[in-house]
Structures are given as C-alpha cells and as structure tokens.
C-alpha cells in the first residue's frame, strides 16, 4: 500500500514538472510580451516592466527562476493586476468554483445512480426507455446550451431565478443543474448497463436461492458491484466539473476561476495563465490519485500493489 502510494505521488510530481515546463516554454514561444500590446504605455515604462518581471533575462535564467518559485509554492505576481499575486487570485475565484462544483458532483452522482437503478430494475419498460432518452440527451447536449436554456425558461420566462450572479442561495440552482446534467446522464448509463450485467450473474441467483430479501440482494450484492464503474468515473468527473466550469461561470456571470482564466488569456497575463493551468492540472491529478486509492477499497479483489495496481 505504502509503495503504491509513493509510486503514484512520484508520478504526480514528474507530471507536474513536465506540465509546468511545457506551459512555460509555450508561453515564451508566443511572439512579443504582455506589455507590448498596451499602446498607451510609453516605451520607457514598458522596458521598466520587462525588467521588473524578468522578461529581459535569458530564457534559461527565466526558466530556472520559474522553477525556483514553484519549489517555494510561489506562482508569481499577475502582470496585468497590480500588486496582486496569482495565489491570491486563485483563493478569490476558487471559492465560487469549488462551491458550484461540489453541489454539481453530489447532484450528478445521486441523480445518475438513482435513474440508472430505476432503469435497470424496469428493464425494457417505460421507465427504462424514458431514462435512456434523458441520458442520451444529457450526453449529447453541451452544457452551455443547457445553461442558456435554463436561463431562458427559469430566468426570463418564469422569473424564478436571477439570470446572472450569486446574490442568493437559489442562484446556485441553475449553474449546478447545467454542470451536473452531462455527468449525471453518463453515470445513469453506467449504472444501468452495469446493474443489468450484475443482476444476471450466477452469484445473484445463488443469493436468491439462499432466501435473501430483495433489498439485501439489491444493496449488498447488486448495487455494490454495479457502482464500481461509477467510482472509476468520479475522479475525472470531479476534476472536469471543478476545472471545466469556465463557460458556465461566464454565462451566469460568476466570479470564479473561469472568469480569471478567460481574462488572463485575453490580456496575455503569462504568470496567471501558467499558474491557473498548473492549479487545474494538480486538481485533475489529485482526483485521479484519490480515485485509484478509493477503487482499491471498494473492490477487495484489487490489490494496491505493484502487480495489482
């Protein structure tokens, strides 16, 4: 177990190093710098800013300085927001992204498992077909289309919720629904197909022959084994929801990390782009790492060793 965890952590560190290096050199490969696009800044001040941010240093010196800052968990200062560090921006925006993401994850898992279970237990019946239709629509329709549809129906026509902003707890409802629609549909399909396979397995027939109640068979045997593909999906789903809410945050006017990420690209804020990219990558890797660990505990047949991991 310890060896497995250490191997995963080492792989994460190597991946972060490779990603940080690739992001740095890609940023430096873009012609010009963030201050050359500002026509209202005199050339003397641009030169002073280049010197202050080390943009006049040789590329190798800039790279070593960048790595040294990362070792000390310093992502640098924003090049376009005066006296504001990248870490401060992440702290400010991630609160909203995390809140919306957590609610969306809970809703996606709960709704996906429930609808998938209902579909499997009503195989080839109306509820099964209706659930499949919802799942297909959920996977096919992009979340920004869902978001604008929710805004039009519940914000403009019915006036139940505000179209933009997070001024009230009810303002979370539409962004959370838009973010959770696709993963909930995918989970429902996973649970349905896995549940149908489990229900037809030989050990399920043995459990029925032993006289076990339907609820015990469903919860202890069927659902526990059918949920394994969902556990595998939760890791990347969590990372995708939390880090992939850029468009949703823009549509609903939420001041999360998505807003800062879009603005950093528009303003060519190199330090902020590199910092947010690295932060998103760490979230994705941590989610995948925790999923691998959790999968080993959920399925006792999997051993967290070098051969079984």
Summarize the structure.
The chain is mostly helical. The protein has helices at 2-29, 43-52, 59-71, 86-121, 126-140, 143-157, 173-199, 202-209, 214-226, 228-243, 246-251, 257-267, 270-298. Helix content is 73%, strand content 0%.
Largest sheet: none
Terminus-to-terminus distance: 10 Å
Q: What's the mean pLDDT score?
A: 80
Low-confidence stretches: 305-309
Assess the beta-strand content as a share of residues. under 5%
What is the tally of beta strands?
A: 0
What is the string of SSEs from the N terminus onward? HHHHHHHHHHHHH
User: How does the helix and strand content classify structurally?
Assistant: mainly alpha
Protein architecture, described:
This protein is an all-alpha fold and 309 residues long. It is built from 13 helices and no strands. Helix content is 73%, strand content 0%. The longest helix is centred in the middle third of the chain and has 36 residues, at 86-121.
Give the SSE map:
Elements: H1 2-29, H2 43-52, H3 59-71, H4 86-121, H5 126-140, H6 143-157, H7 173-199, H8 202-209, H9 214-226, H10 228-243, H11 246-251, H12 257-267, H13 270-298
Task: Considering the chains and any ligands shown, give keywords for the structure.
13 helices; flat; mainly alpha; disordered C terminus; 309 residues
């Amino acid at each position: 177990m310890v060896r497995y965890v250490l191997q995963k952590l080492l792989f994460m560190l190597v991946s972060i190093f490779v990603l940080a290096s690739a992001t740095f050199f890609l940023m430096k490969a873009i012609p010009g710098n963030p201050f050359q696009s500002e026509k209202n800044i005199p050339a003397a001040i641009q030169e002073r800013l280049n010197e202050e941010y080390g943009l006049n240093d040789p590329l190798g010196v800039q790279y070593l300085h960048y790595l040294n800052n990362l070792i000390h968990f310093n992502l640098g200062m924003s090049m376009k927001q005066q006296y504001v560090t990248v870490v401060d921006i992440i702290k400010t925006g991630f609160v909203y992204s995390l809140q919306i993401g957590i609610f969306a994850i809970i809703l996606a898992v709960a709704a996906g498992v429930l609808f998938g279970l209902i579909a499997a237990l009503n195989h080839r019946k109306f509820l099964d077909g209706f659930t499949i239709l919802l799942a297909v629509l959920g996977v096919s329709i992009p979340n920004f289309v869902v978001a604008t549809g929710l805004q039009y129906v519940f914000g403009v026509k019915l006036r139940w919720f505000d179209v933009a902003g997070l001024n009230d707890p009810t303002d979370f409802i539409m962004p959370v629904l838009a973010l959770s629609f696709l993963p909930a549909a995918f989970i429902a399909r996973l649970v349905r197909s896995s549940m149908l396979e489990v229900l037809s397995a030989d050990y399920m027939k043995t459990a029925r022959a032993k006289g076990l109640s339907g609820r015990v068979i469903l919860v202890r045997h069927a659902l526990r084994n059918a949920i394994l593909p969902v556990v595998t999906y939760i890791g990347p789903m969590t990372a995708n929801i939390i880090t992939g809410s850029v468009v949703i945050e823009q549509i609903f006017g939420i001041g999360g990390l998505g807003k800062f990420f879009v603005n950093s690209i528009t303003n060519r804020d190199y330090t902020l782009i590199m910092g947010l990219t690295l932060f998103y990558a760490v979230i994705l890797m941590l989610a995948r790492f925790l999923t691998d660990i959790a999968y080993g505990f959920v399925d006792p047949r999997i051993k967290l060793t070098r051969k079984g991991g």
